[in-house]
Amino acid sequence: MLRFQFDEKKGVEALTYVASKWPGLTAFFAAKVLFFAEKQHLNRYSRPIVGDTFIAMPNGPVPSTLYDFIKGRLDQAGDPDAIMAALLIERDPYPRVAAQRAPDLDALSPSDLECLDEAIAFCRGRGFGALSGLTHQERAWLEAPANGPMDYEHMIEGDDREVIVAEAREFASYGVL
């Protein structure tokens, strides 16, 4: 299984960026934006944006660590105060994410922002059922055990798949940039 080391700082900044661009962002849409951005970035640049572990949940992929943060589970966070300063989570009737400050764009590369913007545009134009249905067609979701981790290798597609997989495997041994 191809996995990456989660980068908490980049994860928080990516989520803050998405929340700053999408007022009223729900946990569901945040998860789908992050999944599609991560997949797009991996296919273009052979590396993920944040390297979170995506879980194959009933309504589609969920970035496990960032979802824990959204749910208020900060006990495993390296810097809970930084997360609380960056994000406001409203839980009535279900979790919504808002940016409490501007995202630190120095933590995100131009290619990160490009893929995040594309994923926001892609997801914003679709409803809950449509996005859930689209993610249920993703190989990584289909091949993962129910409520289990998804394999990043299964997110990689296209003619250059073998080259990208090799580069991603090499990158995975070093971490997220």
UniProtKB/TrEMBL annotation:
<dbReference type="InterPro" id="IPR025272">
    <property type="entry name" value="SocA_Panacea"/>
</dbReference>
<feature type="domain" description="Antitoxin SocA-like Panacea">
    <location>
        <begin position="32"/>
        <end position="141"/>
    </location>
</feature>
<dbReference type="Pfam" id="PF13274">
    <property type="entry name" value="SocA_Panacea"/>
</dbReference>
<protein>
    <recommendedName>
        <fullName>Antitoxin SocA-like Panacea domain-containing protein</fullName>
    </recommendedName>
</protein>
